[in-house]
Amino acid sequence: MTILYKFYLNGYEVNDIDDISLFVGQNAESLLKIFDYNIIIQKSSQNPWLEIIFNNLFLARIIEGCNAVSVMILFVSFIAAFSGKLKNTLLFIVFGIVSIYILNVFRIALLVVLLYNFPESNKLVHDIVFPLIIYGYVFLLWIFWINRFSKYAK
């Protein structure tokens, strides 16, 4: 899956951002607009990332690694390695990917608000708290899978 994802990324120009990252940025922007935030998330004209403009201030950027695809690949690999019945395995993989995607969009939106309001906590929030949340969630999904559906559960 990692090799396939790498081929997907290689299909983009050096200074372009992939469609998955673009879609994540659009969803994060839409979520923040629901709460009436002044937010623009746009492609950089010269760099392979999205620019986050919050209250008319350049706040941060979204790069390819922010789209959580690597986390989804890790999740799917574990579920496949400890598979159960085919139907359960495929349904749980779909559920996991969708829920990780949604959690990631919320993560980005919340991170934007926190970075704006508490810029001094950037390192703590971005590098420790949010990875802990997303990887912790994947770990809980794995535990649930192993205990409920995996053929190793018994």
Shape: globular
Question: How does the helix and strand content classify structurally?
Answer: mainly alpha
Total DSSP E strands: 3
Strand content: 5-15%
Radius of gyration: 17 Å
Output the strand order for the largest sheet.
Answer: 1-2-3
Helix content: 55-70%
Oligomer: single chain
Determine the mean pLDDT.
93
Low-confidence spans: none
- Note the gap between the termini: 29 Å
Number of H/I helices: 5
Integer tally of domains: 1
Subcellular location: Cell membrane
InterPro entries: Exo/Archaeosortase_dom, Exosortase, Exosortase-related_prot_XrtF
Keywords: Cell membrane, Hydrolase, Membrane, Protease, Transmembrane, Transmembrane helix
Main location: membrane
Question: What does this molecule look like?
Answer:
This protein is mainly alpha-helical and 154 residues long. It has one domain. The chain has helices at 2-10, 19-34, 69-81, 86-117, 122-148; strands at 39-43, 50-54, 57-62. Helix 3 packs parallel to helix 5.
Q: Main traits of this protein?
A:
single chain, 154 residues, mainly alpha, 5 helices, globular, Exosortase family protein XrtF, protease, cell membrane, hydrolase
Write the layout of secondary structure elements.
Layout: H1 2-10, H2 19-34, E1 39-43, E2 50-54, E3 57-62, H3 69-81, H4 86-117, H5 122-148
Antiparallel strand pairs: 1-2, 2-3
Helix pairs in contact: 2-4, 3-4, 3-5, 4-5
